[in-house]
Amino acid sequence: MARSTDSTSRTGVHAVGLIFSKKLGWIFREQHESDFGIDAQVEVKEGGRATGRLIALQIKSGPSHLRKRGENFVYRGEKRHLEYWLNHPLPVFLIFHDPEPDITLWQKIDVSFCEVTEKGWSIEVPKGNVLDERAAAVFKSKREPTEEETRREHLKFDLDVIEAVSKHDVKFEWRLDDDPEIGVTDLKASYRDKSGKEKIVCWESYGGGSYTVHDVMQERYWFLDWDYDEDVIRYDDCEDHILAVTVRPEVLGWLAVEKILREGPPEIEEREIPYEEPTFEESFREALELDWQAEMAERERDRDG
């Protein structure tokens, strides 16, 4: 079958993002800086509030990724991807979006569901695994993460955002609905390159939940300092809040450590061993001692001969 194009891939990511943010009301975050096999991250919300429970998604778009197996489907992949997903700190789900019949299926990466061979592996995807509100319970992590675990995971996942903000004049553009029960709905973070072209750092969809800008910056982007960059822009039923952001100094220290861990430590020049130079008197005494030892050794040989 035809290979998925970039356009098809973008369509799939967009469609999946809408399902999570609009139908489930959760926070969908696409990962623009490609992680090895992870396209997006989702944060579960309950009662309109973020829980800190995160899942990772690998999104496949187009009809070429699945094959029929009886009433269900099967996906086949490379072992290196399976090993990575099984060892990922977050639960990983495969999401399959086919735009023609407009259907989206899911399957959790779990070794008990996988068939592994010498050449690769496969996993069955039930036709009933439709990505909609009924699937919400499956995506919820069983264990509540600690606040520290949540902050650490945010730092790891937002490394591309932190690096971009530390290097460029990044603006956060928050959209707020006029209905306070909906609040923040979307975020676009971007900057202008030297040619004036807009570069997107990240998009996020919040699906409402009565968040204010302060709420989200405090809970989600606590590692950034921020202030309003310009006046609020009003529309008929919503408004845009533009923020100037910088990385907090203590987080810049973490970023430097993360770079060393990722790239390895810098080369260090070899140091000379600081032996103390002997004085003239010490050298003279050492030479006399060596001469005396040589003379005594020669006398000993003469006596033995």
What's the CATH architecture name of the largest domain? 3-Layer(aba) Sandwich
Strand content: 25-35%
Oligomer designation = single chain
Q: Report the count of strand segments.
A: 15
- Helical content band: 25-40%
Largest sheet features? 11 strands, mixed
Classify the secondary structure makeup into a structural class: alpha+beta
Give the number of domains: 3
Unreliable stretches: none
Treating each run of at least 4 consecutive H or I residues as one helix, how many helices? 8
Radius of gyration: 31 Å
Query: Roughly what is the average pLDDT, rounded to an integer?
Result: 86
Do you know the CATH topology of the largest domain? Answer: Trna Endonuclease, Chain: A, domain 1
C-alpha end-to-end distance = 99 Å
Order of helices and strands: HEEEEEHEEEEHHHEEEHEEEHH
Shape: elongated
Which CATH C-level class of the largest domain is it? Alpha Beta
How are the secondary structure elements laid out?
Elements: H1 6-23, E1 27-35, E2 38-46, E3 49-61, E4 67-69, E5 72-77, H2 79-86, E6 92-98, E7 103-108, E8 114-116, E9 121-125, H3 136-139, H4 147-157, H5 159-167, E10 171-177, E11 184-192, E12 198-205, H6 213-219, E13 224-228, E14 233-234, E15 238-247, H7 249-263, H8 280-304
Parallel strand pairs: 3-6
Antiparallel strand pairs: 1-2, 1-12, 2-3, 4-5, 5-9, 6-7, 8-9, 10-11, 10-15, 11-12, 13-15, 14-15
What does this entry look like structurally?
- It is a single chain.
- This protein is α+β, with helices and mostly antiparallel strands and 305 residues long.
- The protein has 3 domains: 6-143, Trna Endonuclease, Chain: A, domain 1 (3-Layer(aba) Sandwich); 158-263, no CATH class; 276-305.
- Helices cover 32% and strands 33% of the residues.
- It is built from 8 helices and 15 strands.
- It has helices spanning 6-23, 79-86, 136-139, 147-157, 159-167, 213-219, 249-263, 280-304; strands spanning 27-35, 38-46, 49-61, 67-69, 72-77, 92-98, 103-108, 114-116, 121-125, 171-177, 184-192, 198-205, 224-228, 233-234, 238-247.
- Strands 1, 2, 3, 6, 7, 10, 11, 12, 13, 14 and 15 form an 11-stranded mixed beta sheet that branches. A 4-stranded antiparallel beta sheet has the order 4-5-9-8.
- The model has no long low-confidence stretch (mean pLDDT 86).
